[in-house]
Every structure is written in structure tokens, then in C-alpha cells.
Design a protein that fits this description.
- This protein is mostly helical and about 525 residues long.
- Helices cover about 45% and strands about 10% of the residues.
- The strands form 5 sheets. Strands 1-2-3 form a 3-stranded parallel beta sheet. It has a 3-stranded antiparallel beta sheet with strand order 4-5-8.
- A hairpin with a 3-residue loop joins strand 6 and strand 7.
- Helix 13 crosses helix 15.
- The longest helix has 16 residues.
- The chain is elongated and about 105 Å long.
- It binds one RNA strand of 75 nucleotides through helix 6, strand 7, helix 7, strand 12 and helix 12.
RNA sequence: GGUCCCUUCGUCUAGCGGUUAGGACACCGGCCUUUCACGUCGGCGACACGGGUUCGAGUCCCGUAGGGAUCACCA
């Protein structure tokens, strides 16, 4: 079983936990599952978990986007499948660009998707003491050195090197420096040793990847303002938090060899790596705002269900034979890194929409009914009075692909007075149709039970009486009840609306003909 | 430009030396039908290219081309 090496981390982890109500809740949840004698072990980690420790480490500089969500999902799925531990860490070492709003947005999006974590969220901004200590360790052991070159100098040298066709690599001016300039600002660089050698790792998705060490730069690990940089803290934290498999976007492949060198220099075991391919836009470039919505929470606003998003995201780059539909528990059962593809995938909103329609069609009407209320409210419709939302969902679920579409389609049920579409009224609310409306009104009024079966029979009698086919009877009724020529089946609409509303709308329509 | 990664229908993918190269989304058409949908049946449509290895390559190897990522005191 894993044990924490660093006292500093031990103390700080509790500090972070205490700062987060969410992780308190997670802790209580797991604690409740344990025998009372073991409960005081629970805060650190649950005893029934396996050794796998993975993490999601977003940078809080914006909302949770599609790509990040998929990375988080893969981590989550593998942790749950292997009964491992899923750690959430907030990478906010760039204090200027990080915001609490972004942290909240990311947490909210993960909750919406159903991605729960076991430890964290840990904030790197609260762990600077640890990082400085580790920088000092490297300095003391001669594996890092101070560099006094200014950012402007470096930039100039980089450009010069590039212009001559050379590599924009740090020239190690300060490694050879014998006398440190008194009081000058400096950064700390990690020294890449063994320049003749290679650094290789066996990526769980991509296979073996090898880099020549002389391609690697002496990267900056501590800025002149004393704050550490990403490539360093990610190593320290992943090691200190006992992460043994790093699942992240493949834009990090190029960072991996120097991170491995730092693990070794700090005396840490090197974790496994799994680099998941990027998500591209339709033009095959990295997904960005100009490709449309990339924030997962914007999809919620657009009426998407979280299970559709999860299902779509996982199938983008992963497959299980010919299967397309996966619930979260299916995925926890079936997900493997071996079945993750190597190549980047194009984000296809059409397929997401199809999946969303599927989950609307098959979802629990009571749950969707509650959701519908929220989307109706967003449309400015008060649905506190009127038909049961669950019944409304049943009439609309086969013709709405998003909850927003459903809300628009459901509006007529709840408006106090239907607005007739001009063309619909002109065609179906005319003197010629008045007898039909009156006959339907009379038959429905006489009904003892008001269900679809009885309603259907009533229409049968109307057709007999008037000698008209349903194709002539239904349209004026539809317009009278919904204001539109497009709606669910009129029988369903009548049943859901109820006798009182139906008759009232029928009479109003007949009266409107004049 | 250097380095690294990738390459089966428009898109997501199945395939793990022998298949009429399968499925899904999208698109087109038929059927169903009280509107719109749903559903259902069918159609269109791919192994980037060139060399090898092999009795036999989408599958293995090497090139080429194309695409992507990365080269910061961002993460």
C-alpha cells in the first residue's frame, strides 16, 4: 500500500482538504463505507482500493473544455475500473492567470458529468514551500544551477539561433559562470545530464517513445520571482501524491523526457504514462473557440444531457467492438487503455446530437420532466401550473434532440392562451372546419374516461358523423390546441392537456373563426 | 526549421496475414404515418502513395507524402 514520503505533503493535503467542502463530502462518503475500526485511516485513502493512482490536473485559466473533460473521464474510468484512486489537482502556479471562478467552473462541470474524485482538490499555489525545498535539493546536489541571463538576452539569442538554422536551445552560459553577480535576479535551471544518451518511455497508448538527450534543454524550474514552473511542479506533485500512471493529452509527449530526468534527479520512481490523442475541429486543427462551443457547460445550456456527453467523449478515440451506447457503469466495466486509438479525432457535433436524442428518448420521464422545468424557465415559461412535466416529456421525447428543443416544443402546454401561427390558422381555422371543431368538442365533452383510448374512439365517432378522414379532422384540432401544424399526436396532446383545457382551447378556436 | 506523434468511408471506428473490408453519425431513397418526428428497410461511401517480406498483405518492415503536437521566466 502506498505511503506518503513527504511530511510536508501530508500536512498540506489536509489543509487543502479542509479548504474544500466537496472533498469533505467525498471523504465522508468513503468513511461511511468502512468498518469503524478503520475509519480513521479513511481520510488519507480507502483501504479497499487497489494500487492504481491517477490524477486530473487542470489549469484554472478558463472553463472545462471538451478535451480536458475527456482526459478527466479517461482517468476517472480507469480509476473506477481498477478500484484505484482518482486525485484532482489544480495547477495554479501561474497565479496571474488562475482564478477561483475557473476552479468553480471546472468543479461544476466535473460534477455535471458525474466524475467524482477521491482526493483533492489540491492547489499547487498552497504548496510553494515544498517546491522550493525540492529546488534547493537539486541545487545542493548539483543537478540544477542558477542562471542570470535576462529574458531579453535569451530571446535575442533564441532568434539569432533560429535565424542561422540552429536550435533555440539554452547555451549554458551560466553553467560555466564561475562568479555569481551579486544581488542580480536569477532563475534556476535543471541541468540535463548524459547528453550522449537517450531517454525513452513505454507509453501505454503510443508505445515506446525515444528522445535523444541532446535535444533537451536546461529548462527553468524556478522563475526569477521565486515561483516554480509547470514542468517541475508536475513532477514533484505526481511523485509526492503517489501517482503511478499519468494519463494526459499527447501535447505533453514532448515534456515527458525531461520530466523523467527530473524524477530521477529527485530520486523518485518514474510513473507510467498514457498520452491520449488530441481532439480536433472539422478543419483538423486543435479544437478551439472558433470551432463553436468547446465548454462542456455550454452544452448543458444548449440542452445536452451529461450521459450523452460522456458517451460521445469516450467513443471519440475509444471503442468496444461495434457498440455505440455506453452508460457510465458500462464504461467502468469495459474501458481499457489498450482500446484507446493512437490518432487524433475530429469532434463531430452531429453524432453528439444523435446520442443526446437517444438519451432523451430512453431517459426516465420523471427525471427529464424536472429538467424540462428548468429549460422552460430559461425560455421564460412558467410551468408551475399545467400538465405533469413527465407526461409532457413522453409526448415530446421522440421529436426533441435537445432539452432546449423540447422546451420550445412544450411551451404550448403551459401558455395561458395559445398563439395561432398565421399560416396554420389561415389554413385550418376557417368556416369550413367549424363543424369539425364543434363535433370534436361535443364528443370529447361526453367522454366518461379521458384517456387516449377513449379519445381515439371519440374521434372515430366524429369521422363517422362528418364523413371525414382523420387527415381532415386532426389538423384543425391540432392548431386549436397547440397553435401550430407541428406537434405530438393530437390524442396524446388532448390526454395530457386534460378535458378542461382541451375544451376551453377548442371553444376559443371555434369562436376565433368569424 | 528541429524533435516527437499520427494516417481504413466526409466524420467516429471494427479489423490484430487469407473478410464480398463490418458497424455508427451524416447524406440519399422506399416503407410506416393525423402533422413533425421516431422507427424500419435499402443505397452512396475508405485501407494516403511507393517499395519490400510472404504462397498471400488494410494487417509486418523501409521510404515518401500529408496532418498534428511541441520547441516560453504558459500550463
Amino acid at each position: 500500500m502506498f505511503s506518503f514520503k513527504s511530511k510536508a505533503f501530508h500536512a498540506r493535503s489536509f489543509q487543502s482538504l479542509a479548504s474544500s467542502e466537496r472533498s469533505e463530502r467525498a471523504r465522508e462518503f468513503f468513511t461511511g463505507l468502512l468498518p469503524s475500526t478503520l475509519q480513521n485511516l479513511a481520510p488519507q485513502r480507502s483501504y479497499f482500493m487497489s494500487g492504481l493512482r491517477v490524477r486530473f490536473a487542470p489549469s484554472p485559466t478558463g472553463y472545462l473544455h471538451i478535451g480536458g473533460a475527456r482526459t478527466a473521464l479517461f482517468n476517472y474510468l480507469l480509476a473506477r475500473k481498477e478500484k484505484g484512486t482518482f486525485v484532482l489537482r489544480i495547477e495554479d502556479t501561474d497565479v496571474a492567470r488562475s482564478t477561483q471562478e475557473s476552479v468553480d467552473a471546472i468543479l461544476q462541470a466535473m460534477e455535471w458529468l458525474g466524475l467524482s474524485y477521491d482526493e483533492g482538490p489540491f492547489y499547487q499555489s498552497e504548496r510553494f514551500d515544498l517546491y522550493r525545498q525540492k529546488v534547493q535539493q537539486l541545487l545542493d546536489s548539483g543537478k540544477a544551477y542558477r542562471c542570470y541571463c535576462s529574458a531579453e538576452e535569451l530571446e535575442a539569442r533564441r532568434e539569432a539561433a533560429l535565424k542561422e538554422g540552429g536550435k533555440p536551445k539554452y547555451d549554458r552560459t551560466c553553467l560555466r559562470r564561475t562568479e555569481a553577480p551579486e544581488g542580480s535576479p536569477y532563475v534556476v535551471r535543471f541541468q540535463v545530464e548524459d547528453e550522449e544518451g537517450v531517454t525513452a518511455f513505454d507509453d501505454r497508448i503510443k508505445g515506446t517513445i525515444t528522445f535523444r538527450n541532446d535535444e533537451l534543454d536546461d529548462l527553468i524550474i524556478l522563475r526569477s520571482d521565486g515561483t516554480p514552473t509547470y514542468n517541475f511542479v508536475v513532477v514533484v506533485d505526481d511523485a509526492e501524491m503517489g501517482i503511478n500512471l499519468v494519463i494526459r493529452g499527447d501535447d505533453h509527449i514532448n515534456n515527458t523526457p525531461r520530466q523523467i530526468l527530473m524524477y530521477k534527479a529527485l530520486g523518485y520512481p518514474v510513473p507510467g504514462f498514457a498520452h491520449v490523442p488530441m481532439i480536433l475541429g472539422a478543419d483538423k486543427t486543435r479544437l478551439s473557440k472558433r470551432h463553436g462551443a468547446t465548454s462542456v457547460m455550454v452544452y448543458r445550456e444548449m440542452g445536452y444531457l451529461p450521459e450523452a456527453m460522456v458517451n460521445y467523449l469516450v467513443r471519440l478515440g475509444w471503442s468496444h467492438g461495434d457498440e455505440e451506447i455506453f452508460s457510465m457503469s458500462d464504461l467502468i466495466d469495459k474501458f481499457t487503455l489498450e482500446a484507446v486509438g493512437k490518432s487524433a479525432g475530429v469532434f463531430n457535433p452531429e453524432k453528439l446530437l444523435w446520442l443526446n436524442a437517444h438519451y432523451i428518448k430512453t431517459g426516465d420521464p420523471a427525471r427529464l420532466g424536472k429538467l424540462l422545468l428548468e429549460y422552460l424557465a430559461a425560455e421564460g415559461i412558467d410551468a408551475t401550473r399545467g400538465p405533469d412535466p413527465a407526461a409532457v416529456v413522453v409526448t415530446l421525447r421522440e421529436r426533441a434532440r435537445t432539452m432546449v428543443e423540447m422546451a420550445k416544443g412544450a411551451a404550448f402546454y403551459y401558455v395561458p392562451e395559445v398563439t395561432y401561427e398565421a399560416e396554420a390558422a389561415a389554413k385550418f381555422l376557417t368556416e369550413a372546419q367549424r363543424p369539425v371543431l364543434e363535433s370534436v368538442t361535443a364528443r370529447l365533452e361526453a367522454l366518461e374516461t379521458f384517456d387516449e383510448e377513449a379519445i381515439s374512439q371519440a374521434f372515430g365517432m366524429v369521422m363517422e358523423e362528418t364523413g371525414l378522414k382523420l387527415g381532415k379532422v386532426a389538423p384543425p384540432v391540432r392548431v386549436a390546441l397547440t397553435g401550430s401544424t407541428v406537434s405530438p399526436s393530437v390524442y396524446e396532446v388532448i390526454a395530457v392537456l386534460g378535458r378542461e383545457q382541451t375544451l376551453q382551447r377548442l371553444r376559443r378556436a371555434a369562436a376565433a373563426i368569424s
